[in-house]
Amino acid sequence: PESNMCEIPDLDDKYRKAMKEFAVGIEKLAERLLDLLCENLGLEKGYLKKAFCGSKGPTFGTKVSNYPPCPRPELIKGLRAHTDAGGIILLFQDDRVSGLQLLKDGQWIDVPPMRHSIVVNLGDQLEVISNGKYKSVMHRVLARTDGNRMSIASFYNPGSDAVIFPAPSLLEKEAERKNEAYPKFVFEDYLKLYVGQKFQAKEPRFEALKDLENVSAHPILTS
Predict the structure, then answer these.
(1) FRET pair for 72, CA 20 to 30 Å: which of 106, 148, 204, 214?
(2) For the chain, which domains are there?
(3) pTM metric for this prediction
(4) What is the pLDDT confidence band of residue 106, given thresholds at 50, 70 and 90?
(5) DSSP class of residue 219?
(6) CB-based contact 156:89 (threshold 8 Å)
(7) From CA 191, how far away is CA 49, in angstroms rounded?
């Protein structure tokens, strides 16, 4: 989409310029990483970017978040556990204050602050296209007492009308698992479902879309 940087109030021109250059660089990095994922999956270069395109191309956005210090962090949740709905997410964490955790093997693991580093996270759409070879990551942010935490997250997502489905070549390589394939859907439809279920498990979302896919694949017979 077109940049809306000029519409955001209370930013000076130097900051706007820096953020615009930052976003351009991060978007290019996201596309390079997508091609590395293609290589690892055995897909042709550019497959994932093309899968995200829709009629107007992928969508890209950057979100700056502020988590103020909290004197009683045990009483609140900074950001509840969830997976991201979209494609690939590149995150600049605060380089001093921690808080980000990811779920691995049933345990919450701290992602420590590291200066000049980018945390790469995968969203639900890459899980679908890879037919589960890659998994979207459950993560959360804890409230802290030890300072103000800032983060800059950039989201490289499919276009709203992009049709998302498992890469056929991956299904061919796993013919015995075709019955376990992820559903086919329009990304905007997934987002509508996600809005009300963001902080719930992702599997029921996939199953709900699979049920809709099965219904639409079987036309109603009329006499």
Answers:
(1) 106
(2) 5-215 (2.60.120.330)
(3) 0.87
(4) very high
(5) P
(6) yes
(7) 19
